[in-house]
Design brief:
The protein has a five-stranded parallel β-sheet with strand order 3-2-1-4-5, sandwiched between helices. The chain has 162 residues and is of the alpha/beta class. It has a single domain, classed as 3-Layer(aba) Sandwich (Rossmann fold), CATH 3.40.50.620. Helix content is 40%, strand content 19%. It is built from six helices and five strands. Helix 1 links the parallel strand 1 and strand 2.
Length: 162
C-alpha cells in the first residue's frame, strides 16, 4: 500500500489545501493529512489542533482513502512511523519552491525512504493561504470563495472582528 503524508498547519484548511488533498488521494492508496504542531508557533494559531482536525475531517469525509492525524516532531520521523512512501506538498508560486525544496532535501537526508511529491496549485488557488483567509476575515471580508462551506460559520465566528 502506497501511503502519502500531506502535512501542514491548516489554520484553517482552505480550498487550495483541499484541492491538493483530493488530487493526492487519486495518486496514493492512503493519504494521511497531518496537522503538524510547531511548538514555537502555538500561540499564533487561530484554531486549536482539535478544531483543525475536525475541519479537515468534515471537509474530506467524502474521500474514502483520507485519514487525519496530528504530530509534534520531525516530519521525516512521522513518515517513517507511518511507513509513508511520499510527502505531498502543494506549491502556489516560485516563492514557495525554495523553502519547500530545502525542506525536501532535509527530509531526504533524515529519511531516505520517503520522497517528496509537489502538486502545483490550480490557478484559482495560487494566491490562497490560511494567512490570507485570516487577514480577509479579520477585516470582515467575505471568505466563502476561500474555504470549504463546511467550516465557513466557525471561521467567520472566530476571525471576523467587525
Amino acid at each position: 500500500m502506497k501511503i502519502a503524508i500531506c502535512p501542514g498547519s491548516f489554520d484553517p484548511v482552505t480550498k487550495g489545501h483541499l484541492d491538493v488533498i483530493k488530487r493526492a488521494s487519486k495518486l496514493f492508496d492512503k493519504v494521511i493529512v497531518v496537522v503538524m504542531q510547531n511548538v514555537r508557533k502555538k500561540d499564533s494559531n487561530s484554531f486549536t489542533v482539535e478544531e483543525r482536525l475536525d475541519f479537515i475531517k468534515r471537509c474530506t469525509c467524502d474521500i474514502g482513502n483520507v485519514e487525519t492525524d496530528s504530530y509534534v516532531g520531525l516530519l521525516a520521523d512521522y513518515a517513517r512511523e507511518k511507513n509513508a512512501a511520499a510527502i505531498v506538498k502543494g506549491l502556489r508560486a516560485v516563492s514557495d519552491f525554495e523553502d519547500e525544496f530545502q525542506q525536501s532535501l532535509t527530509n531526504m537526508r533524515l529519511n531516505p525512504d520517503v520522497e517528496t511529491v509537489f502538486i502545483t496549485a490550480k490557478s484559482e488557488y495560487m494566491f490562497l493561504s490560511s494567512s490570507v483567509v485570516k487577514q480577509v476575515a479579520g477585516y470582515g471580508g467575505e471568505v466563502d470563495d476561500f474555504i470549504p462551506a463546511q467550516i465557513i460559520d466557525e471561521v467567520n465566528k472566530r476571525l471576523n472582528h467587525k
